[in-house]
Write a structure and sequence with these properties.
The protein is of the alpha/beta class. The chain is 42% helix and 20% strand. Helix 2 crosses helix 3.
């Protein structure tokens, strides 16, 4: 299968490209520059550096010529802040831009599409009492993205949305999302304070397998909840501490009301700056302080995701974070 990928030089995209090429597919990508100097890229992947949002429909159609598959490994995540309503920014990059690509892809004869989404969409469906779409612009954008994408599916156009959780692994030269966590732990000196609850996670290698599996196996329109390893925050932080070189460091589980104090402080600070975040940190407390777990049987196993070394992947991520914070390496930010 010939596949066009948006974001194929990023952490997720490059791993997915390598997996697809191993399976005998041909991959080309349109990706934002720059590419990290030391980042390994599959030599067989055709790379075009540029911004697809600045291309005309005809130019994009030319890139889809002969393609049967399409992977969208781009967009913006919950870390983005902006002037309210920030939903409009998420809509621009996660919904409107993707809808244009889906329209062109289907018209160009593409038959199989995979979109990298968020596991927050899964929890919005499975925990309706939290009303996540009402309170969190980012989560609303991901749900709206799914609804839009699935509406394009038919007998000749298969659409898979991967509801991805926390991902561990590194691309040399690219900043991991976990720098904020390592920095926060360092600032707390001798005790790490964190709320109760936990999360599901995968390695970047497993994400590559999920993308390839979804591209090959999805029929019609399907949202795949992706999660392989479930850890409480305490279990996760114990692993993080080990790789930070502080094994045995005490972890204090704080009550939800303490998390809410910080959330209210952040909302007030953003309001003074004229900024809105993708998550309302006060309303987010109920989800953050719970076990955000996903059974691997409902997504990963059907897509052929294999076990991997999550401890090693967390270690790779944490060590790179330490090198960045200690000024030992230069990186670019997490972009496709």
């Amino acid at each position: 299968m010939q596949i066009l990928m948006i974001g194929g030089t990023g952490l997720i995209g490059s791993e997915a490209a390598a997996e697809l090429i191993r399976r005998g597919h041909e991959v080309s990508t349109i990706s934002l520059p720059p590419i990290p100097r030391d980042a390994p890229m599959p030599p067989e992947m055709k790379i075009e550096l540029g911004n697809f949002m600045e291309m005309t429909d005809d130019e994009i159609s030319q890139r889809f010529a002969g393609c049967e598959g399409f992977v969208f490994a781009a967009g913006i995540d919950e870390r983005v802040e902006g002037p309210p309503p920030v939903y409009e920014m998420f809509k621009k990059f996660n919904i409107i831009a993707l809808e244009r690509l889906l329209r062109i892809a289907r018209r160009s004869g593409v038959r199989h599409t995979v979109i990298c989404g968020s596991y927050f969409s899964y929890f919005a469906r499975s925990r309706p009492e939290l009303d996540l779409a009402r309170w969190h612009p980012y989560i609303k954008s991901r749900i709206d993205q799914e609804d839009m994408a699935i509406s394009y599916a038919d007998a000749d156009f298969n659409v898979a949305v991967l509801e991805l959780p926390y991902i561990f692994g590194v691309q040399p030269g690219r900043k991991p999302v976990w720098v904020f966590l390592v920095e926060m732990i360092r600032k707390m000196k001798h005790i790490t304070m964190f709320p109760a609850g936990g999360t599901t996670m995968v390695t970047v290698k497993q994400v590559g397998q999920a993308i390839a599996g979804a591209l090959e196996k999805t029929r019609g329109g399907t949202c795949w909840p992706i999660g392989y390893y479930n850890m409480t925050w305490k279990e996760f932080l114990t692993t993080v501490h080990k790789h930070m070189g502080v094994p045995g460091r005490k972890i204090l589980t704080i009550p939800k009301w303490m998390f809410l104090i910080n959330g209210r402080s952040m909302l007030k600070k953003n309001a003074r700056r004229g900024i809105e975040g993708g998550l309302n940190l006060v309303k987010f407390a109920d989800l953050q302080c719970s076990n955000q777990f996903i059974d691997k049987e409902i997504g990963c196993i059907p897509l052929g995701v294999q076990p991997d070394d999550i401890d090693a992947a967390i270690g790779d991520s944490i060590r790179l974070c330490l090198e960045i914070l200690d000024g030992k390496t230069d990186v670019i930010d997490m972009r496709g």
